[in-house]
Design brief:
4-stranded antiparallel sheet; single chain
């Protein structure tokens, strides 16, 4: 699954904000964790974190692998479930949800 985030901080090497991403070797300096909350949070495997090819440098693409079975959560609906995004110990997108089938 791919997430597209903004406000994730500086990259190395530094990319100019507002330009189209051409250097996908640049990596955010932030340490990311993506999880599905529950009694015990399920950390998702990060496959790629960096600029989204063809997108603006201010966008960060995060590709994660979802587990083969998804936990049943009390605040899940038939169409979506919450997802937890953390960078350098700070949570982002507290109300983010992903679509499920």
């Amino acid at each position: 699954m791919s997430l597209f985030l903004t406000g994730t901080g500086q990259t190395s090497p530094i990319l100019r904000e507002g330009e189209v991403a051409r250097n996908i070797e640049a990596k955010p300096l932030s340490d990311f964790r993506i999880a599905i909350p529950g009694r015990v949070a399920t950390l998702l495997e990060l496959l790629y974190v960096g600029p989204g090819p063809g997108l603006l440098n201010s966008m960060t693409q995060v590709n994660v692998r979802l587990p083969s079975t998804m936990p049943v959560l009390p605040d899940s609906t038939a169409l979506s479930m919450p997802i937890f995004v953390e960078a350098n110990g700070r949570s982002f997108y507290q109300d983010a949800r992903i679509a499920i089938q």
